[in-house]
Amino acid sequence: MGLVADARAATRILAVWRTSGRPTAAMIRLELSSTLTTLAPYAVVAVAAALAAFVLQNDLHRVQEDGLLVIGDPFAVSLYGGVLLLSVYVAASAAMAVAREREHGTVELLAYGPVSAFSYQLAKFTSHVLQYAFLLVLLLGAYLLLAARTGLHLRPTALLAMALSIGPAAAATALSLLVAALVRRVRPTILSVLGLAFGAVGLQVAGDVLARLPAPEFHVNPVQVLRWAAFTGSSITQWLLPFGYVDRVLSVTLRGDLTGAFGAAVAACAYAVVVLILAAAALDRTGLRR
Amino acid sequence: MAEPVLRTEQLTKRYDGLVAVSDLEVDVQPGEIYGFLGPNGAGKTTTLLMVLGILKPTAGRIYLWGRPLEDEPLAVKRRIGVVGEHDYIHDHVTADEYLRFFANLYGVPNPAGRIPMLLERLGLLEFQTLRARDFSRGMKQKLSLARALLHEPELLLLDEPVSGLDPHGIVTVRHLLLELNRSGVTIFISSHLLSEVEQTAHRVGIMHRGRLIRQDTIPALRGLLPSDPTLDVELQAPVPHLEVQVLKLPVVRQAHVNGRRLVVTVAAGADHRGAISQAVAAAGGVIVGMQMHEPSLEEAFLTLTDAAVERWVS
Question: What is the rounded CA–CA span in Å between residue B294 and residue B231?
């Protein structure tokens, strides 16, 4: 009986692989080969590495001038910038891929065959998350070179933060796929994804700046009101938008709070799964036709 | 009777008040070539997209191999090859890369052997490393057909398969379709090119304004026509009073002489060329050429659609 059940289970797995797994794997391979053979992802890594070089050089310059610089992690700022840049790039790239293929009609061609809206979105999601991981390795190589060149130490927590940032990047990719499914056209899709990313980051930066401003002692204090508005907006986007998860994962990891870091990464992954399912449902609902 | 490969049951699609397809009941039998005819905007492509699950019907059901489409859409689509309305080929890919991707997608065994074989059959082998941007419309159409045949489908759904092809290409594709059909592949051709469907299809469904106005064999559709076949006879020299002699034959409906040319309308249902030849010879004429003109599917189509329009208007 056990053998029969095992054989049935194996047959079912094989059938699922044939109907959904194989087409998804084929689409992932195609997406990876077409995106990684272009210049854009390497240009983004180069920009992130240049940003890190600029920040480190600036730090070293201050050390030379002041004789002392107290800094928790010399790569922290570079890491924030690099991870955010890569996340936004991968998210925008995924959104553009879906919107462009929809506008061109390729999605319809895929739907003639054994490709569902879910397997299509899953392929786009997986290929872009893998692309992010690959670009992260390249960025790590650049950081190691900079560490060797400047003599500054790349701490293990920074390495862990980079690894855990895959969760928030996956969440950002899933959200961009949802946007692409809802918006349909290439240009509005890209503008929406970039608007969400920079809007969320801008709100957070504005909150930080306002928090540092001295509040004038008026009866109705405008700085307090703005601070409150920025804080409220930022608190909402921190949970609703994936770019908040990037900040959370990095800050918690760099502080050395490993439990919090893994928790934030898991939350980001859960967000990614839920939003990916919504993205597939949205694509199914809005239709595969251009 | 065997289970139809494709069957629709009161299939309907409405877009914001516009009825694209209305209560469509089509059945495609195993091993047949079914021509789905209709002018542009008749609802043919909408029907195909619903059969493929790309458009959701407003009402009605679709059965493929006896099972509702929604039961196992992906498994069913593995058994179908499709050439759609548009080719959707990225300009930067080569024919070989394009087919290799779809071979992976469908899990085609031995793509290295199958791809060149199909490309050769469609006259594209020498262009396999050429990028799609350098392909003509006809070449892209053939490439789409190669893609549709990669996984050896049991049912082929073709939307205007010969559009954009040159006469040589049309003959190549026609022969290929007939050969596939002989090997057991069921073929559903949606087209507005009546002459093309006439030469390949066993049965035809005629769509007009979202409705199936007729579904029958081609001879049966021709039989609906009021007009009889005509014989165009070329004579060596004019023969006086020839039409009087010819009109004496009971099968002749009308006869008209214009110099060395005699045009005779005869009763449908039999070949009357022998009787006409004898009558001409008896009148002293010498025939140098004779052509029979039967009412085409095009005429049947126009008669049917005009009648349908009149019915709806009244």
Answer: 9
Dihedral pair phi/psi, residue B92, rounded to 5°: -85, -10
Q: According to the model, what pLDDT value does residue B118 have? A: 93
* Least confident window among A67-76, A85-94, A105-114: A67-76
Write out chain B residues lying below 8 Å of A106, CB-based: 88, 90
DSSP helix/strand/coil, B34: strand
Exposure string (b/e) for A211-229, b if CB count within 10 Å is 16 or more?
Answer: eeeeeeeeeeeeeeebbee
B53 to A109: CB separation less than 8 angstroms, yes or no: no
pTM (2 d.p.): 0.79
The pLDDT of A193-199, averaged and rounded, is: 85
* Domain boundaries, position A85: 22-286
Give the closest of A26, A106, A116 to B88, CB-based. A106
How close A111 comes to chain B (CA, Å)? 7
Rounded CA-CA distance A173/A41 in Å is 15
Could you say which residues of chain B have pLDDT below 70? Answer: 1, 222-227, 295-314
Region A112-139 average pLDDT:
94
Whether chain B has a CB inside 8 Å of the CB on A224: the answer is no
The DSSP-derived string for A214-247 is PPP--SS-HHHHHHHHHHHHHHHHHHHSTHHHHH
Q: Specify if A12 maps to a domain.
A: no
Is CATH 3.20.20.140 the classification given to domain B230-293? Answer: no
Closest CA to B211 of B297, B295, B307, B83: B307
Q: Out of 3.10.20.30, 3.30.470.20, 3.30.1330.10, 3.40.50.300, which CATH number does the structure's domain B6-222 have?
A: 3.40.50.300
Handedness of CA B276, B277, B278, B283 (dihedral sign): positive
Q: Could you give the residue range(s) of every CATH 3.30.70.100 domain in chain B?
A: 230-293
Predicted confidence band at A290 (pLDDT cuts at 50, 70, 90)?
A: low
> Number of folded domains in chain A?
1
Q: ipTM score here?
A: 0.77
Contact A105 B106 (CB under 8 A): no
Residue A135 has pLDDT above 90, yes or no: yes
B91 in contact with A at a CB cutoff of 8 Å?
no
Q: Evaluate whether residue A17 is within a structural domain.
A: no
